[in-house]
Amino acid sequence: MLIVMKIALVHELLTMRGGAERVLRILAAMFPDAPIFALLYDEKKLGDWFPRERVRTSTIHPLFGSYNHHLYLRSFPRAVEAWDFSEFDLVISTSSAFAHGIITNGKPKHLSIINSPARYLWDRTHDVIREASHGPLGFLKKRYLQRIFHTLRIWDCEAADRPDTLLAASKTVQRRIELYWRRTSDVVTPPIDDFWLQERKPINEHMQRPDYFLIVSSLVRYKRIDLAIEACNKLGKYLKVVGEGSDMQRLKKLSGPTIEFYGWRQGDELADLYASAIGTIFPGDEDFGLVPLESMACGTPVIAYRSGGALETIVEGKTGEFFGDPTVEALQEVLVKFDSTKYSRDACREQARKFSQEKFKQELSQKITEVMGGRVL
Q1: What pTM value is reported for the model?
Q2: Which CATH number is 7-117+160-191+357-371 given?
């Protein structure tokens, strides 16, 4: 008799479309019967990716309709610990802060895909507190965050021992897991959607006007979109910004006449924007980053900050270039010298194919078999 394994998926915040949500979408397709547990869920933004009937939310209710996760930091640890997974054989969590802290007590098994240990608790904590300390209530916000971050760091280290297996999204994340949690992990890099690896017809010539650089990103401060905007302002370079987020209004105020904001785009429309750009700018310090892979899959090279996951996906001089300091001046220097004609579209596409869904599924299935003691899906 065939026994079907019962699987649950856990993700912290279903409130915006980002790289972590794209990976969860692939997991959801791999395991179509698995419910998705989430701390917060914005159906208006993600209902088409993760329908309401499939999502099991926590007891946290959005305050005043706000999905700003900073409002709920104290509540998140208790919320993930309250979920009961006793009916399942395996839980797969995708964690950027809290999902790895669910309690399973060995039944079911828990495999946690770590996007990163919470960066605002560890390597970015001083930057976050410094930013929050501005304004009339800055002193109070600073004191509050110092206390809550200290408490959460203790919980985070304890909770990191709970999963049976940790999978790091990149070598960069693997190093953080060892540094902050003192645990070993295996690297299984996120895949890009098969959509990006399809053969595409040549872009019409009218799409090439004028030569422009492209940003595809959530518009939040730590993504450093302002570096690209200010560099293109000063050089008079055209820049198209695709994405939405809390930093949009500030970024628009920084923008000159050569900067255009496109909001959220997807599918063929986004693919055309990638393929028609002379280069995609990736200015943040990211744990991995799917945008460079999507860009390369469309035949377009990438200009990235020399740090983090970009170092694991971009081949310097062949599929893109790096700038060494997170400054406008360093990015400007690369943009001035950048010549898109030196990069082969075929080389870019070939690099992107190394991060296919098929490869990801094979590696993940192997890890599931290992954690389940040889039991296969």
Answers
A1: 0.84
A2: 3.40.50
